[in-house]
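Let us work through a complete example step by step.
Step 1: write down the sequence.
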Amino acid sequence: MDTTEGPLAHDVDELKSQGGPGRTFAFAEIKSGRLKAKKMGRRTIVLRSDLLSYLEALPAARGGEIS
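Step 2: predict the structure and record it as tokens.
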């Protein structure tokens, strides 16, 4: 198994450290359907492929925008 790409899934609490949204915003994005998530027992997880798809689908920043 190739582990150079990182884990296959992340807890919602781990998303921010992986370049994704923070916990509250992540749950809002999951509720809206923009970010796919799965349940594993009581844990809410996001597959690496779904996080990458979500990040790639974000709109491009306009020139000069910093925030």
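Step 3: interpret the result. The helical segments are 23-32, 48-57.
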